[in-house]
Amino acid sequence: MSYKRIFTIVLDSVGTGAAPDADKFGDEGSDTLGHIGEAYKGKLALPNLQKMGLSNLRGQAIEGVPAVDSPLGYYGKMTEISAGKDSMDGHWEMMGLPVTQPLDFFPEGFPDELLAKIADFSGRKIVGNRPASGTKIIEELGEHQLETGDLIIYTSGDSVLQIAAHEEVIPLDELYRICEYARSLVNGPKYTLGRVIARPYVGTNKDNFTRTSHRHDYSLEPTGQTDLDYLQKNDIKTIGIGKISDIFSGNGLDEVYHNEDNMDGMNHVDHVMAQDFNGFCFVNLVDFDSMYGHRRNPIGFGQALMDFDQRLATVLEKLKEDDLLLITADHGNDPGFKGTDHTREQVPLLAYSPSMEKNGSLGVRDTFSDLGATVLDNFNVEGTAKGKSFLSELI
After folding, report:
1. Which sign does the torsion angle of CA 349, 350, 355, 359 carry?
2. Which of 59, 219, 295, 378 is the most exposed place for a label (fewest CB within 10 A)?
């Protein structure tokens, strides 16, 4: 069967256990969903994800979310082959463009040469320049920025340059302009970074600084055609919700929506579901990652999952016979693990349509690109030839 509309929701950073190559990243033992379940001591309630088979795909059930005998549809998990464990790597790979060459990252901070250019362009001094948790470095240097107007620049274990700025000290349009310039400096060949991220915040002191939803990601331009491009060229409507447009630099998308938070993102999903179209809706819900994973907050992470699960009930009710829902993630960010960075994990793969007559396992997919291959197969579009479609397995 083919579907008129495919909705793919990416639960940003909701990994389901260490990937086979986790040791190469120092991430052996990471398990985002498993450690959240342990933190809740059996009280994690995800009834809708549970009945879709969230625990069925694992070697052991998530505490509080046991496997079910007869899932709604099909379940499995996917293994990443890209060189990194960033959102860009994960989403590009889903859309048939694995990142095969490692991008640059700077565990000792950025080169003076690069920072000097940003300082000269912006007319502002720079502080920070080290790997750090975004909330912690703002807590540490935010008051200094209020006094001086200096730029707070920091990084992480990923290929990313982040610029934090108080919205009343450095207005958004100025911050975005600086980030756009920084992006122009790291497109290769000397330095090639996956993302430059604007990280605005508000507040009066370190006790109440809060990052806002005006974050903006400036991703590396896709290095080739993605499945989104092929869909668009074949007049299949493509819709991006959340940071999807940022990740693909706007390429391959007909319609985009920016999320204030996860629930706003789900409002956009509801809005798009009410439309009559033939196409693909690609959704990213980032709060799991930015609000709880990096902050190593398993309780907040679990609550965000439960909030999403409640909204998922509405999505399941509104699905039409010729709709397909896919739920997955782009990497892990285990809030029960060391450090503050993403974790190299396999990700869930849940598939459901009201038209399905059977259910079962999709197994362990060899690459995230299987998802995009399935979307292309459904719309009879030829693309990157990456990945293996599982469309025929959805009965």
Report:
1. positive
2. 59
Q: Is residue 91 marked as binding?
A: no
Cα(221)–Cα(95) distance, integer angstroms: 14
Return the half-sphere exposure (C-beta side, CA atoms, 13 A cut-off) of residue 32: 34
Please indicate if the annotation marks 12 as binding a ligand.
Answer: yes
> Does 229 lie in the same domain as 195?
no
List pLDDT tens digits, range 17-58: 999 999 999 999 999 999 999 999 999 999 999 999 999 989
| One domain for residues 382 and 234 | yes
Residue 89 annotated as binding site: no
> Do both 180 and 279 map to the same domain?
no
- Number of folded domains that form the chain: 2
Residue 160 lies in a domain: yes
CATH of the domain at 361: 3.40.720.10
To the question of whether residue 330 is assigned a binding role by annotation, the answer is: yes
Closest CA to 191 of 157, 220, 154: 220
Q: Is 246 annotated as a binding residue?
A: no
107 located within any domain = no
Q: In 3-state terms, what secondary structure has residue 260? A: coil
* Contact status, residue 76 vs residue 346, Cβ threshold 8 Å: no
Q: For the whole model, what pTM was predicted?
A: 0.92
Taking the C-alpha atoms of residue 169 and residue 167, their distance in angstroms, rounded to an integer, is 6
Whether 323 has a binding-site annotation, put simply, is: no
- How far apart (Å, rounded) are the C-alpha atoms in residues 26 and 180? 32
Domain with 197, as residue range(s), is: 112-219
For 265-316, the DSSP string reads: HHHHHHHHHTS--SEEEEEEE-HIIIIIITTT-HHHHHHHHHHHHHHHHHHH
Angle at 131 between CA 130 and CA 137, to 5 degrees: 80
Strands of the sheet with 255-257, listed across from one edge: 255-257, 237-241, 279-285, 5-11, 323-328, 347-352, 74-78, 360-365
Rounded CA-CA distance 265/290 in Å is 15
Neighbours of 194 (CB within 10 A): 24
| 3-class DSSP state of 29 | coil
pLDDT tens digits along 141-164: 999 999 999 999 999 888 999 999
Are 246 and 141 contained in the same domain? Answer: no
